[in-house]
Amino acid sequence: MFELSFGKMMIIAVVALIVLGPEKLPRVARTLGHLLGRARSYANQVKQDIDREMQMEELRKLQQQAQEAARSFESAVNDAGRSVEAEAAKLQSGVSQSAADVEAVVASAEHSIAAPVTNAASSVQDELKALETSIAEQAQQANAAVSGSHPAVAHEQTSASNGADAAVPPPPAAAPVAKTAAA
User: Fold this and answer.
1) Do residues 142 and 171 make contact, with C-beta atoms less than 8 angstroms apart?
2) What angle in degrees, to the nearest 10, is found between the helix axes of 25-148 and 151-162?
3) For a disulfide at 158, which of 23, 83, 99, 142, Cβ 3.0-4.6 Å?
4) Helix boundaries (H) for the chain
C-alpha cells in the first residue's frame, strides 16, 4: 500500500525532528513504536483468528464429508448384506428343491425297481401255483388209474398222458397199493 523506501523514511525523520524537536522526538518515537507493535499484534491476532475459523470450517466440511462417506459405506454394506442374504435364501431354496427332486427321483427309481421285482415275484408265485395245481391233478389221475388197473399199466398210462419219459419212476403211493392188491 504505502511503499516507504530508505530515502522517504529519512525525509520523514528530518521533518519530525524539526517539527517536534530533539526533546520530544524520542518519546513520540517510542509511543509510535508501541502503537505500531500493538497494531501489528492486533493484525496478527485477527489473521490467526481468520485462519483458525477457516481451518474450523474446513474441518467441519471434512467432518461432514466423513459422515456422508460413513453413511454411504454403511448403506452399501447393508445393501450388500441384503443381497448376500437374498442369494443365500435363493441357494437354500434351490438346494431344498434339488433335494426334493433327488428324493422324488430316488422314490421313482425305487418304485420302478420294486415294481418289476414285485411283478416277477407274483408271476413266479402264479407259475408255482399253476405247477402245484397241475401236479395235484396229475397225482389224482394217477391215483384213479392205479386204483382201477394194474400198477405198471397205470404208470405207463400216466407217463403217456403227461408226455413224461418212461424212465420216470411211478409215484410212491402207487407201489404200496399194488402190493396190497397182490397180497
Assistant:
1) yes
2) 140
3) 142
4) 6-20, 25-148, 151-162, 174-182
